[in-house]
Design brief:
Elements: E1 6-12, H1 19-27, E2 32-38, E3 67-70, H2 90-94, E4 102-105, H3 111-123, E5 127-129, H4 135-138, H5 143-157, E6 162-165, H6 168-176, E7 184-186, H7 193-202, H8 204-214, E8 221-228, H9 235-248, E9 252-259, H10 263-271, E10 277-281, H11 288-294, E11 297-300, H12 309-316, E12 321-324, E13 343-345, H13 350-359, H14 363-379, H15 382-399
């Protein structure tokens, strides 16, 4: 290993709006030589299939500023969509100790990831992993599968030399399935807060136009749902709660952003209402910060959602969250801290969600949660994940007995906000 440079390889399913900016910023750090190996070109040549027919390729730059390569599958072509069954034979050539001092990947969700883990073990390359799993998301599995997981997961998880955790519930999941504390380094799932803040600051007139488009009048309180219209995202709970809350506070209005299989059924349900909830549809990435900022409150009603990053995106946009307790990113030091920077309600309890919506109708409450949400986001932004990567690279270098100048982050972080324990629901 070069004393001054850590050669980090990344095996990743496809370019994403969250990790593209992260790879760019990580590549800028002194002593880091990064190469991303993509298993598909999803989001570049076509939109996310789960977002329905309206979906388009992302309209923000996800590929500049770092070294990357698309890997071909067994057919000799680069897949345009993520596939669980994808096998990229180029991994045999790329994943060698001569090319990389360490490899990062997420989970074991596809065959190429599993091949990556095997090659790292056989060739002695340190493996770094991260996922967003939680015990709550495991609840959907059958008893038989949970038994199999209890047997297999500890062995699989310990194929990794280090795990970057992304939150409180994720750390509980890792420990439950056999990962020791000395292998866990606290990180986060990165969101490019700089892009969100810059977009909002640069387009005040467009932001006002969007707000005028969505609201009835200046008194409207806008509650937003953004994501895939699929069962586990639970959009009908959002719709029904907004409709009930509107009966008690006529300022309440809901807006759905996204698309997916449930869209026809959603439109049918909305036709029964009187405009209390509207379906705006697909919003591309360049406009997402503006639509988040135009809202007063963001609501995530999912009954399975390990760590929804839309919540972080809303927070950096100045929009406080209401979160289902089946989402995996609430906790004392996590993204949403009940009654500190947002509200957490028991999933499936529509009346509880209605009460949270009405509570957020108070201007001072929203402002307090808005301020605290932005403070919390600053603890969990893109630079938080960079610090975690730099720490794990230093540990690997130390284990290999390399005496070198410590890798330092080029962007100094401001001091994080004090982590205030908040009452949990």
């Amino acid at each position: 290993m070069d004393n001054d440079v850590f050669k980090l390889g990344v095996v990743f399913t496809h370019p994403t709006q969250h990790h593209g900016p992260f790879w760019r910023k990580l590549s800028e750090q002194p002593g880091v030589d990064l190469k991303v190996l993509y298993l598909s070109s999803e989001n570049q040549s076509a939109g996310d299939t789960f977002l329905g027919e309206q979906a388009k390729p992302w309209d923000v730059d996800l590929l500049s500023g770092y070294s990357y390569k698309y890997l071909k599958d067994l057919s000799g072509k680069v897949p345009t969509q993520r596939k669980k069954s994808v096998i990229s034979p180029g991994l045999f050539r790329w994943l060698t100790p001569q090319n990389f001092d360490g490899i990062f990947m997420q989970s074991f969700v596809n065959y190429s990831y599993r091949l990556t883990a095997a090659l790292c073990k056989l060739r002695g390359i340190p493996l770094i992993m991260q996922n967003d799993a939680s015990m709550m998301s495991d609840a959907r599995h059958s008893r038989l599968r949970l038994i199999a997981m209890a047997i297999l997961y500890p062995w699989m998880n310990n194929l990794a030399d280090y795990w970057l955790s992304c939150g409180d519930h994720n750390e509980i999941h890792l420990r439950h399935y056999g990962v020791s504390d000395d292998k866990i380094i606290r990180g986060c799932h990165p969101v490019d807060g700089d892009r969100f803040r810059q977009t909002i600051a640069a387009q005040p007139e467009e932001l006002q136009r969007i707000r005028n488009e969505l609201a009835w009048d200046d008194n409207t309180i806008l509650y937003g749902f953004m994501g895939k219209y699929i069962e586990r995202k639970n959009p009908f709970e959002f719709i029904n709660a907004i409709a009930k809350a509107h009966q008690q506070d006529s300022r309440v209005r809901g807006v759905l952003f996204g698309g997916g299989d449930l869209e026809p059924a959603i439109n049918q349900r909305l036709a029964e209402l009187n405009g209390e909830v509207i379906n705006h549809g697909f919003v591309n990435q360049s406009q997402v910060p503006l639509y988040f900022s135009a809202l007063d409150v963001f609501v995530s009603t999912s009954w399975i959602d390990p760590h929804p990053l839309v919540v972080s995106e809303a927070m950096v946009s100045g929009t406080p969250p209401i979160l289902s307790d089946r989402c995996g990113n609430w906790g004392y030091s996590d993204t949403v801290r009940h009654r500190y920077n947002g509200l957490v309600y028991p999933c499936g309890k529509v009346d509880s969600l209605v009460n949270a919506i009405l509570e957020m109708g108070d201007t001072e409450t929203r402002q307090r949660y808005r301020n605290c949400s932005q403070e919390v986001f600053n603890e969990q932004d893109l630079y938080c994940e960079i610090e975690a990567f730099l720490e794990v690279m230093e540990r690997i270098k130390t284990q290999k007995g390399v005496a070198s100048t410590q890798i330092m982050m080029t962007h100094p972080r401001s001091e994080p906000a004090e982590r205030i324990p908040a009452e949990m629901p």
